[in-house]
Automatic annotation (TrEMBL):
UniProt xrefs under InterPro entries: FNR_nucleotide-bd, Riboflavin_synthase-like_b-brl
Entries under Gene3D superfamilies matching the protein: Nucleotide-binding domain of ferredoxin-NADP reductase (FNR) module, Translation factors
Protein's name according to its UniProt entry: Ferredoxin--NADP+ reductase
Organism: Sediminibacillus halophilus
Amino acid sequence: MQIYWTKINKIIKETTEVITYLLDCPGDFTWDEGSHTHFALEGFNAGEKPNRSLIRHMSISTLPHENAIGITTRIREQCSEFKTILSNLEVGNKVAIFKTYSNVPLKREDKNIYLLSSGVGLATFRPLVLDYFERADNVNQIHSLNIDSSKEFLFTDVFKSAPDKKFTAQFVDNRKDYYEKVKDLVADKDGLFYVVGSDEFLVQNIEVLREQSIKPEQIMLDKHEQELPNFLS
């Protein structure tokens, strides 16, 4: 397993609670849209065993051509040891990334794609949308629906409706509106539905999708293959 040590290049305060850390790209490090990585703080591998409290599974919110590895996360006032340390890091501090993989690449199967996310889960979808804007081959259209009760919606520079690009972005701040809109979207029985958020959010969305006859193979989750049966069986 290769561990890439890299430096924080820039820190962007996206909203009151959401921060993006832009990391320098190590020379031979590459990734695909929809990738996640293990993001670790200094000292995580100092002992005989890795200190798991200093490691988190994070989505990469950028594409390689942006020349930075973007890690976008929500840091609340009351937070974990990991988030507390992270919130005190500065430009130039070192962090580690390893075990990078994409469970949710953009499927180009001549279908409509629906991106369903909660809060900062939108960070996983940002690279998919940018990839689609650059090359729309074999994707009919993309519709993004995000729920964020904070009402401070993320990445509104990317997630704005563009009819000429066959892209629609919707934001809602409550569950009632969110699930009503999901039910409208599942009128498309042939679409591909990507879902990113907490496990509870995944379970609730899958329930709605399955009730509307959407098949498991039409539902994309940011989970390892061996975890999928826990949600889709």
